[in-house]
């Protein structure tokens, strides 16, 4: 990935990474990492970041929903499921303009364009920002990204 792509993604996310390798890992799907490995390049994929990002996103969204008046477990669960739905997360990357850069190595088969792949990448990006900037930083960004959906 060239420096211009990295800068564009950071600008669209609203966050500048201190450790760019975290961003690259979040954007690299398993097939792309395998492809790079076959070419002799060391590359980690986003898989574990997706798991971490999913957990962080759940915590932040739950807290935001409580702050915005959700008072029962049922109402929190229902609204959170809508917010973290793969369609919502995928659309968020499309809206940010990050979708075309996702899935290095998977463009040939179009995997990078699927809503599922975009949602997974969104979760991986949440983890990457968390690992680079901490919980307060990712909380502020998630609050900004989801503000129009929560209010």
Structure description:
The chain is mainly α and 151 residues long. It has a single domain (3-150), classed as Orthogonal Bundle (Ribonuclease iii, N-terminal Endonuclease Domain, Chain A), CATH 1.10.1520. The protein has eight helices and no strands. α2 (20-27) runs antiparallel to α7 (115-133), α4 packs across α5 (73-83) and α4 (47-67) crosses α8. The longest helix has 21 residues, at 47-67.
Low-confidence stretches: none
What does the oligomeric state look like here? single chain
User: What proportion of the residues form beta strands (DSSP E)?
Assistant: under 5%
Report the mean per-residue pLDDT as an integer. Answer: 87
> What's the number of helices?
8
| CATH fold topology | Ribonuclease iii, N-terminal Endonuclease Domain, Chain A
Shape: elongated
Strand element count: 0
Q: For the report, how would you describe the main beta sheet?
A: none
Global Rg: 15 Å
The number of domains is: 1
């Amino acid at each position: 990935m060239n420096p211009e792509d990295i800068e564009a993604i950071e600008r669209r996310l609203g966050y500048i990474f201190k450790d760019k390798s975290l961003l690259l890992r979040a954007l690299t799907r398993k097939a792309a990492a395998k492809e790079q490995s076959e070419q002799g390049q060391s590359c980690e994929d986003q898989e574990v970041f997706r798991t971490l990002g999913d957990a962080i996103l759940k915590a932040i969204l739950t807290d935001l929903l409580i702050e915005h008046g959700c008072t029962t477990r049922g109402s929190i669960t229902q609204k959170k499921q809508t917010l973290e739905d793969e369609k919502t997360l995928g659309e968020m990357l499309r809206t940010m303009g990050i979708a075309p850069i996702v899935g290095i190595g998977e463009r040939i088969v179009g995997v990078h364009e699927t809503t599922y792949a975009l949602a997974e990448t969104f979760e991986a990006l949440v983890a990457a920002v968390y690992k680079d900037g901490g919980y307060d930083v990712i909380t502020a960004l998630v609050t900004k990204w989801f503000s129009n959906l929560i209010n």
